[in-house]
Amino acid sequence: EHGAAPNLTYDERYSVMWYLAGSDLSEFLELALEYGGDANWLGGNSTIINPAITFGRVENIKILIDAGADVNFQNRVSGGTPLHAAGGTRQYQIAYMLLEAGADPRINDNNGQNGLLGPIEKSGRPGGDDVYAWRQKVIEYLRGIGMEVTPQDP
Q: Residue 111 CA to chain centroid, in angstroms?
């Protein structure tokens, strides 16, 4: 409203959008998007959905998806996607949200690895019942689209 620039870059990697995506200030993320913030702002090698994933900001993930965030963006160095980031940190609720938003679980990174299947198949019963329940939902989703998933449950 007063001319602040939410996409203004600091040090080629950071912006207000980058910080807000990873923060617990969801209302400010919405406001920044309303005033021209880019849901696909590229900082470094990935978009702003990545800090939201890193810090487990479920509400911010919803906001960014609703604002058009590219859920299949591949990191410019690794080729990893937001789905790989969620799987690699065992944030299966976020992985499920990304799948429902159209994330392609068949995309591999630049090394030919699938950043979602590996953690799911090897993680056993990670982080308690809630995490395990979301992991099971992701497994069911993947099987529902014809992917072979062989989890190593305890």
A: 19
Residue among 17, 127, 15 at smallest CA distance from 94: 127
What stretch of H or E contains 55?
none
Structural contact between residues 76 and 109, judged by C-beta atoms closer than 8 angstroms = no
The phi, psi pair for 23, rounded to 5°, reads: -95, 175
Whole-angstrom CA distances from 97 to 90, 125, 128, 136 are 13, 20, 19, 13
Do 39 and 82 contact (CB within 8 A), yes or no?
no
Residue given tokens 């790989």 in the structure block: 84
Domains detected in the chain: 9-144 (1.25.40.20)
pLDDT digits (tens, 9 = 90+) for 29-79: 999 999 999 999 988 888 999 999 999 999 999 999 999 999 999 999 999
| CA distances from residue 46 to 23, 99, 126 in whole angstroms, order as listed | 17, 18, 26
